[in-house]
Specification:
This protein is an all-alpha fold. It contains five helices and no strands.
């Protein structure tokens, strides 16, 4: 059995795309960890954990929004000209990007609401809502990244010609 077959080798382009995804996944795991602490560590840690949740969500938002902008402005237009049969996938990703934006905005709103209300008994329900919304966002991001890696990046690797991959790599590196 050959370990280095052509299918096992990944292009520089795919490695670049996956590296970006790895950073997003790490940020997503950080958010999940903070949400778990917020939910289970108790009242005495609420202020610290809310601050950490804001920080983790801000970092994820920055990285995710940059990633989505790169896809929407560079990757998708390039791909759809060369692989038009993937147009339905583009619409799926664009709708998921809109959902990410909405969920992040909603989660920030919940976190601000918690900060405004202070540490009152009502916040138990609010903490639960923050936890649920945050975990939904995290799972949605993970699912999106898996589809990108298993479908979109695979199509890029298998169907684009070497010169097209190089053009796309140059576009993304400039971004």
């Amino acid at each position: 059995m050959r370990l280095n077959s052509k299918k096992d080798k990944k292009s520089k382009l795919r490695l670049l795309l996956e590296k970006d995804d790895e950073r997003i996944l790490a940020d997503t795991e950080d958010l999940k960890e903070v949400l778990n602490k917020l939910r289970f560590e108790g009242r005495q840690h609420h202020k610290k954990n809310i601050t950490r949740a804001f920080s983790a969500l801000t970092i994820l938002k920055q990285r995710l929004f940059t990633h989505m902008e790169e896809e929407e402005d560079e990757l998708f237009p390039f791909l759809w000209k060369r692989l038009p049969r993937l147009e339905p996938v583009r619409h799926l990703f664009l709708s998921e990007h809109l959902e990410f934006r909405n969920k992040i905005k909603g989660l920030f709103k919940l976190l601000r609401q918690f900060k405004i209300n202070g540490d009152v008994v009502v916040n138990g329900a609010l903490i639960h809502e923050i936890y649920c919304q945050g975990m939904y966002l995290a799972c949605f991001v993970i699912s999106h990244i898996q589809v990108e890696n298993n479908k979109l990046y695979e199509a890029i690797d298998n169907e684009l010609k070497a010169d097209e991959k190089q053009k796309l790599l140059n576009l993304l590196v400039q971004f």
